[in-house]
Design a protein that fits this description.
- By secondary structure, this protein is mainly α.
- The chain is 75% helix and 3% strand.
- The strands form two sheets. A two-stranded antiparallel sheet has the order 1-2.
- A hairpin with a 2-residue loop joins strand 1 and strand 2.
- It is globular, with a radius of gyration of 20 Å.
């Protein structure tokens, strides 16, 4: 039995996507939380908490996109064609946010509010666009033969827009619990208070999506609720409830600083897992599997050699950067 290169590349893309969601999620969440924090020094602490790592976090987005282009060119072509507008808006948001991130530290006091607003706008736009893309994947794409046959605004649906709001809430919760870990009072106490309503809203959003999706897509309903699948997949919602309960208790424990962020990562992972369970094995739902969209084995094998060299380097760099800049961020610290 030969090696399934398509499956290996699918795992690599899923891993890169999850790493991006986890790492750039709290990063974007900082920008989403900016309007809730008016104090200039607290805002500096918020930005300084991600300043050493924010640009490296986006490496995973580049890796995932490049892997999709090389390993699954059909999927890449359909996705780019179907989601041109939200993906372009996402890139505009990331670019504008990156520029604002750097310029706000160099701006005069009179100009800093403008760059703060740009930082907020870029973070919200990028996050919301990513949520719309997630919703579009759940809904699926119209494909005739090997070509996208839908319209340029097929992504503009109530469900997809709701997913955009949901991901914005999820990233905000990631950012808030990140600041619980990285900051000190009074900012830390404020983030604990903010995290609680964000957690409630996120659970409501996850519940609505979990009901909306099977009602709109009979195949997904069969995947989750038929026997024996129901028994195998039941741990996912049970773990969501357990992690949420533990997270709520942790936010009340002023001596616990790190666990809230870890538990939020667990919630994000479970949500991502639910998406994967719903669409597997289709890389272009609802009809094109990852094997149908795959590049020739020779191309996948050639790329895999490079991937096996570069991914460990990215992991080591990521670990080292987070290790070096571990610990609390103090008021008055300069921009890294």
């Amino acid at each position: 039995m030969g090696i399934d290169l398509s499956l290996i590349w699918f795992v690599i893309i899923v891993f890169a996507t999850l790493m991006y969601i986890v790492m750039d999620g709290f990063d974007l969440g900082i920008g989403i939380l900016f309007p809730l924090t008016k104090d200039a020094q607290d805002r500096d602490v918020m930005v300084n908490s991600v300043a050493p790592v924010w640009d490296g976090n986006e490496t995973w987005l580049v890796l995932g996109g490049a892997a999709l282009f090389g390993a699954f060119p059909l999927a890449y072509a359909v996705i780019i064609d179907a989601l041109t507008i939200p993906l372009t808006l996402m890139l505009i948001g990331l670019i504008f946010r990156g520029v604002a991130f750097e310029f706000r530290f160099k701006a005069t006091p009179a100009h800093r509010p403008f760059w703060d607003k740009a930082f907020i706008g870029g973070s919200v736009l990028a996050t919301f666009s990513q949520g719309v893309v997630v919703g579009a994947f759940i809904n699926g794409f119209s494909v005739t033969g090997r070509t996208y046959s839908g319209g340029p605004f097929d992504w503009f649906t109530l469900f997809n827009l709701f997913c955009g709001i949901g991901l914005t809430v999820a990233y905000a919760l990631l950012g808030a619990t990140w600041l619980v870990m990285k900051s000190e009072d009074p900012l830390q106490t404020r983030m604990r208070k903010i995290s609680k309503p964000l957690l409630v809203i996120l659970l409501v959003v996850m519940g609505l999506i979990s009901l909306w999706t099977p009602l709109a897509h009979p195949l997904i309903a069969t995947r989750w609720f038929s026997l024996p699948n129901l028994f195998f997949l039941l741990p996912v919602p049970v773990l969501v409830i357990a992690l949420s309960f533990t997270l709520w208790k942790t936010l009340n424990n002023v001596r616990s600083h790190n666990l809230a962020f870890v538990l939020t990562l667990g919630l994000i992972f479970l949500g991502f897992s639910g998406l994967g369970i719903s669409i597997w094995p289709h890389i272009i739902p609802p009809s094109i599997t990852l094997w149908q969209a795959a590049a020739p084995p020779q191309s996948q094998g050639f790329m895999l050699v490079g991937a096996l060299l570069i991914i460990p380097i990215i992991l080591v760099y990521t670990f080292w950067s987070y290790y070096v800049f571990r610990g609390k961020v103090q008021h008055g610290e300069g921009y890294h």
